[in-house]
Design a protein that fits this description.
About 25% of the residues lie in helices and about 25% in strands. By secondary structure, the chain is an alpha+beta fold. It has a domain at about 15-175 and about 210-270 and about 285-305: Beta-galactosidase, Chain A, domain 5. The chain is globular, with a radius of gyration of 26 Å. This is Glycoside hydrolase family 92 protein.
Length: about 750
């Protein structure tokens, strides 16, 4: 079978989905896996107030909140869908009239450079963003390439038009976050520089080159630095106006223009992790001229090519949900290599990616579950490079560990587990990785034996982590057990049976936190007894990260059969699953967590967070697969909508979106590191996956409808499947998976 002809699929992408409430997505312009994410900011909240964490800042993980009425500017780096944040580098804001360098407030936008805006005058598409800034009557348009953001600002007639470059602005900002800033005005259209920050990434330096389409008539800066004990002899110069070399911690630049009515002032803004010279080289390589429409068309053509890797037939709303999910899945990990192959490593040295693209933004606690397995089907070439990037991270790490949560030559150590081992094992087992698999396994082993990281020493010695030693002892134990199972699978494939035996034994450590008396995973004390104060519904102080025991007690994706046996057999287990999906979880039980809200919950099942994403497929192990089918369709329709508030939880760098796409196609990777996918109930009428190897894999749902959520039978290439699973090779070899749908469960 040959790949299908390209369709116009960009029309179904709505980047505004997830920008309201808990989605934490951004609406601005980026290209697939791009290093630039050029998007609006809608407020300037500080990470702390009076020395304490400011809870409201959580709403601004992506910089933009749909409910807001003002825009403070457009910055070049953003995370998509995260539950913590950083970035927001190099904020640009066009204004006219009297120059104002403070951002003002939401209640009084005219008191600063921010502007009111309306969603009626806002356009968000794949690779393109447009909005009217009402207070200054300026239309802002944004597009991008991989490493360069392009701005186009349409001004009114004015002899006081300005473009502000705020080098203090940022996301999850605080007073001391900017360590140092340097700006060099090369000529009247070109500026270069860098900014170093200390945030989620502790040592992060981003270099830039900024070019204007017309010369500015004057420029200046304002420094907000506190008085230093020593300032050298730079005071000989007036550095406030038209001075070409600026340095400090807290700087804002401004550039003045005369503009005619409707005149467009354009900016090319290139980033580099290495140097100003590389940023300029990136700019010249990726955008040679000033044709904004051409760059926008290129961005959207690039998106369309990627979106066409899966062509689905379904309702219009479902198409919007599907292709926006595919868009969100292809935003990150992000490119972290200049056009010449250079990047800054964890050791803060400059490295060259030899024969691969280096990536960063690995939110692995989220994305190992479905996003990276999704790449092994639709982006195997990039998946290969991502594994190579993880192993480069390992080589540069002073701790000799694979990434936990990496971005910009840093590991921010967020969340639990060492899930890069799952991604690596999955890629090698599915034939995606082209490097040395034994070297990769060695890196996995070294990471899993790092005794002083998050209780690993206790886990190795005792088979569990004592509750006195860790506030997330149970979830860590469960996640390490799964990760160790994935290491064992890789070792088995490579015939390293000593490693297999060691890690398959470790993978059974989850059993040590199972309390047969209560039927739940439960914190265990150092003396071997279970902690007495225990509530399986509570998320606070119970030994779990971002979840409760009701959800985490099912976290044994690697061995459902043993879990079912421990919980009393298939019938009791199915009843327990029924209870999870139908129980009432009072608000008090998630009052202490930012990541869980009512929108993301079905009964007691938390879909708006990741640890339970595989659970709905467990009915396939209980002889009641029709309940998987019905519940999958319920989740798809309830948790994903084509609206700004259409996501029931943080998209988490594409994990929520990857769950949607897998489940819409009718199968899901319950345990990455295995080549097995568990079958559900497809939402699409038809889907064609155009594989990189030139083959196609087709999914069809015969008699598909909103009522026909049950599967009567499944055929793979005409042969009936009776065990509710397919293999990775079934997909990559090409073929057809046919679901025959019905309104009645097949019991």
């Amino acid at each position: 079978m040959v790949a299908s002809a390209q369709q116009n699929l960009v029309q179904y992408v709505k980047p505004i989905i997830g920008t309201s409430k808990m989605g934490h997505t951004y609406p601005g312009a980026t290209v697939p896996f791009g290093a630039v994410q050029l998007s609006p900011e809608t407020d300037t909240l500080s990470y702390e107030v009076n020395g304490k964490y400011n809870g409201d800042v959580y709403k601004y993980c992506a910089g933009y909140k749909y409910e807001d009425k003002t825009i403070t500017g457009f910055s070049h780096t953003h995370f998509s869908g995260t539950g913590h944040s950083d970035l927001g580098d190099f904020l640009i804001m066009p204004t006219q009239g009297k120059l104002q360098l403070n951002p003002g407030t939401a209640s009084n936008p005219k008191g600063g450079y921010r502007s009111a805006f309306s969603h009626a005058n806002e356009v968000a598409e794949a690779g393109y963003y447009k909005v009217k800034l009402d207070d200054d009557n300026i239309t802002a348009e944004l597009t991008s390439t991989t490493r360069v953001g392009m701005h186009q600002y349409t001004f009114p007639k004015s002899d006081q038009s300005h473009i502000i470059l705020d080098l203090m602005a940022g996301i999850y900002n605080y007073e001391e976050k900017t360590v140092w800033t340097y700006v060099r005005v090369v000529n009247d259209t070109l500026i270069t520089g860098y900014r170093q920050t200390n945030g989620w990434a502790r040592t992060r330096t981003v270099y830039f080159a900024m070019s204007f389409s017309k010369p500015f008539k004057s420029y200046g800066r304002k420094s907000y630095d506190a008085k230093q004990a020593y300032r050298g002899f730079w005071g000989k110069f007036n550095q406030e106006q038209n001075f070409p070399e600026i340095a400090g911690k807290k700087l804002k630049m401004f550039f003045d223009f005369d503009t005619q009515e409707g005149e467009k002032v354009k900016i090319k803004f290139a980033l580099s992790p290495v140097s100003q010279e590389n940023a300029l080289e990136n700019m010249r390589a990726e955008i040679s001229g000033w044709d904004f429409e051409k760059v926008k068309a290129q961005a959207q053509a690039t998106w369309n090519k990627e979106l066409n890797k899966i062509q689905v037939t379904t309702s219009n709303d479902n198409k919007i949900n599907f292709y926006t999910a595919l868009y969100h899945a292809y935003i990150n990990p992000t490119t972290y290599t200049d056009v010449n192959g250079e990047y800054k490593g964890l050791d803060q040295g400059v490295h060259k990616a030899d024969g691969f693209t280096n990536y960063t933004t690995f939110s692995l606690w989220d994305t190992y579950r479905a996003l990276h397995p999704f790449f092994n089907i639709t982006q195997p070439g990039r998946s290969n490079d991502m594994v190579k990037s993880m192993l480069a991270h390992y080589d540069q790490s002073s701790l000799h560990m694979l990434p936990i949560w990496s971005h910009y030559a840093n590991d921010n150590w967020c969340m639990s587990g060492y899930h890069s081992v799952s991604v690596i094992s999955d890629a090698i087992i599915k034939g995606t990785y082209t490097g040395d698999p034994n070297k990769a396994l060695d890196a996995c082993i070294a990471t899993a034996k790092h005794r002083d990281y998050e209780g690993i020493g206790y886990y190795i010695d005792k088979g569990y982590i004592p509750a006195e030693k860790s506030g997330i002892s149970v979830s860590n134990n469960l996640e390490y057990s799964y990760d160790d199972w994935s290491i064992a699978q890789l070792a088995k494939k490579l015939n390293r049976m000593d490693v297999y035996n060691e890690f398959i034994k470790r993978s059974n450590n989850w059993k040590n936190n199972y309390d047969s008396a209560s039927g739940f995973m439960r914190p265990k004390l150092a003396d071997g007894t279970f902690k007495k104060e225990f509530d399986p519904k509570d998320t606070e102080g119970q030994g779990f990260i971002e979840g409760n025991s009701w959800n985490y007690s099912f976290f044994v994706p690697q061995d459902p059969a043993s879990l079912i046996e421990m919980m009393g057999g298939k019938k009791k287990f199915a009843t327990r699953l029924d209870t999870l999906f139908t129980m009432h979880l009072p608000d008090e039980f998630f009052a202490h967590t930012e990541d869980i809200t009512r929108e993301g919950i079905i009964g007691g099942y938390v879909h708006g967070n990741e640890p339970a994403h595989h659970i709905v497929y467990f009915y396939n192990w209980t002889d009641q697969p029709w309940k998987t089918q019905a519940q999958v369709r319920h989740i798809l329709n309830m948790q994903y909508k084509p609206t700004a508030d259409g996501l029931g939880g943080n998209d988490d760098c594409g994990q929520m979106s990857a769950w949607y796409m897998f489940s819409s196609l009718g199968f899901y990777p319950v345990a990455p590191g295995s080549d097995i996918y568990s079958l559900g109930s497809p939402l699409v009428n038809n889907a064609v996956i155009n594989l990189e190897n030139g083959k196609t894999f087709t999914v069809e749902a015969i008699k598909q409808s909103d009522k026909n959520v049950y599967v009567e039978k499944v055929l793979l290439n005409g042969k009936e499947i009776t065990d509710h699973k397919i293999k990775h090779a079934d997909i990559t070899n090409g073929g057809k998976l046919s679901f025959y749908m019905s309104s009645k469960p097949k019991k």
